[in-house]
């Protein structure tokens, strides 16, 4: 290792998802069901608002906490959802930026953070950058949010519980009862509760629920990247107790500085754009991919996000690892993600159904042939 490289960088590897993206660029006409971003473009009213901001000179730094029209629109929404709570809001550089600020604001070296396995790839890496200790709770085979399992993992070093619903990579959503149990558990033990709600708009069955309803100290992280296809715009937001928000902002001043100002003006417009049609299309994609594969693969039906996380089928003798299975899929031109990127297990693989209907049909054909071969 180069002598200038910091020790903290050796505690995690580069994202395996990025390696698949690099591979995709080398394949000719692959069926790409690996990318975790919507297949539709940013709606025109949002583009036009950002263009207007650029042409009218709104190109400088914004206030670190974000432009006031966006914060005010979010504040009104938050106050309606969580009336009477001490809940401030600021604009982060994407939800990834919000997650990093939350870790840096609250995690000391040696602090333990509990989250479900499988998990979003960034969680353990961010924690280890801060010197935190990831505590992974095995949620196989159904990927439910089980408060009893979480409570059993709590120690005097536990600082935070990190919840993601709807979840990446499984698409599974926690029920209101499950979220309430974990929210009350965090309050009982005086543990920080962070809720990653970036897929809150992609909710197909029932109504979206947040643990912040049951625990007013919950730190909520959300944004516009997935809901409005603005992944490259880097506009997220964080809301929670005002003292925690002030501390996160202090760190943002010396790191990200602010989210890009023109993109924030686009986000103001985004709050007025209805997503019903897109969400309905994704519900149909969810139904198609699940119903086309559930007879051959063990799948927990996703209620949100745009992922399914099937188990590698067994031939009755020796079961392939997910990595081996994905290699076979890639040989046939299908790009999916092996589960060991999101988990300590290598038994499942992630499919993103944020793709065209034609791509999904081709992908299903390959996956069915792999299961039957």
From TrEMBL:
Could you tell me which Pfam families the record lists for this protein? Aminotran_1_2
Q: Which domain of life is it from?
A: Bacteria
Q: Which organism is it from?
A: Novipirellula aureliae
- EC no. given is 2.6.1.-
Q: What sequence ranges are listed for the domain Aminotransferase class I/classII large? A: 29-366
Lineage, uppermost ranks: Bacteria, Pseudomonadati, Planctomycetota, Planctomycetia, Pirellulales
What InterPro entries does this protein map onto?
Aminotransferase_I/II_large, AspAT/PAT-like, NHTrfase_class1_PyrdxlP-BS, PyrdxlP-dep_Trfase, PyrdxlP-dep_Trfase_major, PyrdxlP-dep_Trfase_small
Task: Give the family this protein belongs to, as stated in its UniProt record.
Answer: Belongs to the class-I pyridoxal-phosphate-dependent aminotransferase family.
Q: Which GO terms describe its biological process?
A: amino acid metabolic process
The record's listing under Gene3D superfamilies reads:
Aspartate Aminotransferase, domain 1 (3.90.1150.10), Type I PLP-dependent aspartate aminotransferase-like (Major domain) (3.40.640.10)
Known cofactor(s): pyridoxal 5'-phosphate
**What CDD domains does this protein's entry cite?**
AAT_like
Q: Which GO terms describe its molecular function?
A: pyridoxal phosphate binding; transaminase activity
What is the protein name stated in its UniProt record?
A: Aminotransferase
Q: Please tell me which top-level EC class this enzyme sits in.
A: transferase
For this protein, the record's SUPFAM superfamilies field holds: PLP-dependent transferases
Keywords (alphabetical) are: Aminotransferase, Pyridoxal phosphate, Transferase
């Amino acid at each position: 290792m180069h002598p200038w490289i910091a020790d903290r960088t050796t505690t995690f590897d580069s994202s395996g998802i990025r390696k698949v993206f690099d591979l995709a660029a080398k394949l000719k006409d692959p069926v790409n069901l690996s990318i975790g971003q919507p297949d539709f473009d940013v709606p025109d009213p949002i583009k036009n608002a950002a263009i207007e901001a650029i042409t009218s000179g709104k190109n400088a730094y914004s206030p670190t906490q974000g432009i006031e029209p966006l914060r005010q629109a979010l504040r009104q929404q938050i106050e309606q959802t969580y009336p009477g709570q001490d809940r401030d809001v600021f604009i982060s550089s994407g939800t990834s930026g919000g997650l990093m600020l939350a870790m840096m604001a609250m995690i000391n070296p040696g602090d333990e953070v509990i989250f479900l396995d499988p998990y979003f790839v960034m969680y353990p890496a961010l924690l280890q950058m801060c010197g935190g200790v990831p505590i992974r709770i095995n949620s196989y085979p159904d990927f439910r949010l089980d408060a009893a399992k979480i409570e059993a993992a709590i120690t005097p070093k536990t600082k935070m519980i990190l919840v993601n619903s709807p979840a990446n990579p499984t698409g599974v959503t926690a029920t209101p009862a499950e979220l309430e149990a974990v929210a009350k558990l965090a309050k009982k033990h005086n543990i920080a509760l962070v809720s990653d709600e970036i897929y809150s708009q992609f909710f197909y069955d029932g109504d979206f629920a947040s643990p912040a309803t049951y625990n007013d100290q919950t730190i909520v992280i959300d944004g516009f990247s997935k809901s409005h296809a603005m992944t490259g715009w880097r506009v997220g937001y964080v809301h929670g107790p005002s003292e925690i928000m002030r501390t996160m902002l202090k760190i943002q001043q010396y790191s990200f500085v602010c989210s890009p100002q023109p993109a924030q003006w686009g986000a103001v417009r985004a709050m007025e754009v209805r997503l019903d049609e897109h969400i309905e299309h994704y519900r149909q994609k969810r139904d198609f991919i699940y119903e086309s594969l559930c007879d051959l693969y063990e799948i927990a039906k996703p209620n949100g996000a745009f992922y399914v996380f099937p188990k590698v089928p067994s031939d009755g003798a020796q079961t392939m690892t997910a990595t081996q299975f994905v290699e076979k899929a890639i040989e046939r031109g299908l790009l999916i993600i092996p589960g060991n990127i999101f988990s300590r297990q290598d038994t499942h693989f992630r499919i993103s159904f944020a793709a065209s209907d034609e791509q999904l049909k081709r992908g299903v054909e390959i996956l069915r042939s792999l299961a039957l071969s």
